[in-house]
Write a structure and sequence with these properties.
The protein is an alpha/beta fold and 569 residues long. Helix 1 packs antiparallel against helix 3 and helix 2 runs antiparallel to helix 6. The longest helix is centred in the first third of the chain and has 31 residues.
Length: 569
């Protein structure tokens, strides 16, 4: 799914290069030239459009390639590349690996569990180091590489006196145009003629993340709130493309005045309004969608918008993380590596992924984050793990919950201890950060040497399994909450944990108890520190240099009573 998203982004970049995508342009030429270098596209004495066209075509060719390796594999540490080649899991073409997996799992073909799982790793690597990474890079090229901006989370971002348009799904192309067109004077005048005082665009899920980290567009919520937000009576249009849209969305909308508008040629919802997006008619289609939402405004009935808003600082791309440690001409991961080596930062964790209706919404996300930063672990979040944002944990004010060493580093650099890195496709940014930490020196030679873990507390999607698998294949200990889909086989359970660790240095485990997830994560981080012969982590070493307080856990009663934010309210 993420790779298909990447294909769409490559096609959009080609259209921009050909001058056939009105409303779109290259916004980050520096990133374009950097990506051209990765893909072997010449840049000397060439126009931006010429480079963009060839980058788009070369990216698209990665999907149908039949021989060799994906070009982006060379962005991984050399030692990691050698492991992939030795195991014969270095991906060839993205589509080829998917097709082969579908063939292997047909009745009467691949009947050896270990062999099937090796292909699973190869497919996932094609996603992480192929389609997802290309998608992230091309989005940055077209819409700008994220830098920290102020945003806001939760239902309170809806406006009672304005037309509210919720952008939901994953692909940022149409979403970018809707944000621009929402300020069109003619559309604003049309909204006034229908009784509204303006047009308010808010995000949900990963398309929302894309808009949040580039424009500061507020986030109404995450996956499991997509039906609930319509109950406010204030949502005129729920605009969705694909992925992570609840199957009951249209049925829920029919109880209110909300119009569900589907936009992708790949995805329709029975009963919803379908307005198909086309790169070549982007502004025209964006205006049509906004007008449809405006026409719905007079149909409002009872409106109740919960008064919850949490501020947040978001948009920490891997480029900005490198920049903030050394500036434009000395960007580096040296300070982060040094902070880990001297014990101010114990290690790092990526807390990512979905929401799952089989567990209490956001509970594991929030408690895991609070406990990790209390123990001096730097946390990065992606995707529907915006739980941290809704609960006030993406601001410097959360520093009071951080351990003294982590707090000292964050205060020196000027960052919160929980860094928002984007949508779920942007887990590829985490791969880049891990690679740069490994090649910076002092923390081993490979991703598997780093004191780092990946965590998906509430996974629910096949995409999440793919992400966890490519992290494990890249050398990361990855822990999923909830139940295991392979629990019925002790042998397969052993293979994806102990077996993969022997092969790749990474492993995949399932653990339903968030407390045990934290326990396992800290134990792994400490074991990696010991293997690197770093000083043993001492929580008291920097206790005098920063205020310290233990994390407060969120009980089920606290959630039910609404005591779930860190703010005074």
């Amino acid at each position: 799914s993420h790779s298909d998203h990447g294909r769409n982004m490559a096609l959009t970049l080609i259209a921009v290069g050909e001058g056939k995508a009105p409303g779109f342009q290259v916004k980050d030429e520096k990133k374009l030239r950097r990506v051209a270098g990765y893909l072997g596209v010449p840049t000397d004495k060439r126009t931006t459009q010429e480079i963009a066209l060839d980058v788009g075509k070369t990216a698209l060719a990665e999907f149908g390639k039949q021989e060799g390796e994906l070009l982006y594999l060379k962005r991984a540490p050399q030692k990691r590349q050698e492991i992939w080649r030795k195991l014969q899991i270095a991906p060839r073409g993205i589509d080829r690996e998917v097709t082969e997996a579908m063939h292997r799992t047909t009745m009467g073909v691949d009947q050896d569990a270990e062999h099937i799982l090796l292909q699973a790793m190869r497919v996932s690597l094609a996603d992480g180091w192929g389609g997802s990474m290309l998608s992230t890079d091309i989005s940055d090229i077209l819409f700008g590489t994220p830098t920290p901006v102020m945003g806001a989370f939760n239902f309170g971002v809806l406006q009672e006196d304005q037309v509210n348009i919720v952008i939901h799904g994953h692909e940022p192309t149409l979403a970018e145009l809707i944000v621009v067109m929402a300020n069109d004077p003619d559309l604003l005048k049309y909204a006034e003629s229908k009784g509204a005082k303006g047009i308010n665009v808010v995000g949900m899920c990963c398309s929302g993340n894309e808009l949040l980290m580039r424009h500061g567009v507020p986030m109404a919520g995450n996956f499991l709130q997509s039906d609930l937000i319509m109950a406010s009576g204030a949502v005129e249009a729920m605009v969705v493309d694909y992925q992570c849209t609840m199957q009951g969305m249209q049925a829920a909308a029919e109880h209110y005045h909300t119009r569900v508008i589907t936009t992708s040629p790949k995805a329709k919802i029975t009963g919803a309004t379908h307005i198909e997006f086309d790169d070549h008619r982007g502004p025209e289609i964006a205006k049509l969608i906004i007008r449809t939402a405006i026409d719905t405004f007079p149909n409002r009935k009872k409106v109740h918008i919960p008064n919850y808003i949490e501020p947040a600082i978001v948009g920490f791309s891997h480029e900005y993380i490198a920049y903030m440690q050394g500036g434009s001409y000395r960007e580096s991961f040296r300070p982060l590596n040094d902070a880990i080596m001297n014990g101010r930062i114990r290690g790092a964790a990526g807390v990512a992924g979905c929401n799952n209706p089989h567990t209490m919404h956001d509970n594991a996300h929030v408690n895991i984050i609070k406990e990790l930063i209390k123990n001096d672990v730097l946390v990065v979040t992606t995707g529907c793990a915006i739980a941290g944002g809704k609960h006030g944990m993406l601001t410097p004010e959360v520093m009071e919950f951080a351990g003294p060493g982590l707090r000292e580093v964050c205060q020196a650099i000027g960052i919160p201890p929980v860094l928002h890195m984007g949508s779920c496709v942007d887990n590829s940014r985490i791969l880049t950060v891990l690679s740069q930490c490994a090649t910076e020196g002092g923390l081993g030679e490979d991703i598997s040497d780093l004191p780092a873990v990946g965590i998906a507390p509430e996974w629910m999607s096949e995409k999440a399994l793919t992400i966890g698998t490519y992290l494990a294949a890249s050398g990361v200990y990855t822990i999923f909450g909830m139940d295991s889909p392979v629990a019925g086989s002790k042998e397969v359970t052993r293979m994806i944990s102990e077996g993969w660790e022997e092969k790749t240095g990474g492993k995949l485990e399932f653990e339903a108890d968030w407390r045990k997830i934290v326990e396992k994560s800290l134990a792994h981080i400490d074991a990696k520190r010991k293997a690197l012969k770093l000083e043993e982590y001492n929580p008291q070493r920097y206790a005098q240099s920063a205020a310290y307080r233990p994390a407060d856990y969120l009980s089920e009663d606290d959630f039910r009573k609404g005591k779930y934010t860190l703010s005074s309210k």
